[in-house]
Amino acid sequence: MPPRRRTDPRLGRDALRHWHADPEGTDRATRAAAVRFTLEELAERAPGNSVEVRVPPYGVVQCVEGPRHTRGTPPNVVESDGETWLALVWGSTTWAEALATGSLRVSGTRADLSGLLPLTREVGP
User: Could you tell me the CATH number of the domain that includes residue 38?
Assistant: First the structure.
């Protein structure tokens, strides 16, 4: 069962669209709403507990079916900053590009989420 949403999907979509229209001019609260909404969306689309996706300081979710992580550092981790995460979600950068620039850090055999991104085809531009 996916986690309960904390971000209203309508407000999250609006925040994501606002960020896409003006990434530089988006305030922190709007960026945070967009990141949290898309993390929740990912967890809903790929339920599970084998990969931890971190976008500090905005949020973290566990997703992808597989062995459940319960203690210590998770074996499968994806971490990025908010701008990189939203660019991946929107499709304005690719998984490979983000890895190459170092703005996306991954570890573990299940941590490749490239097949799940971008999310805009699901959440609507």
Answer: 3.30.1050.40
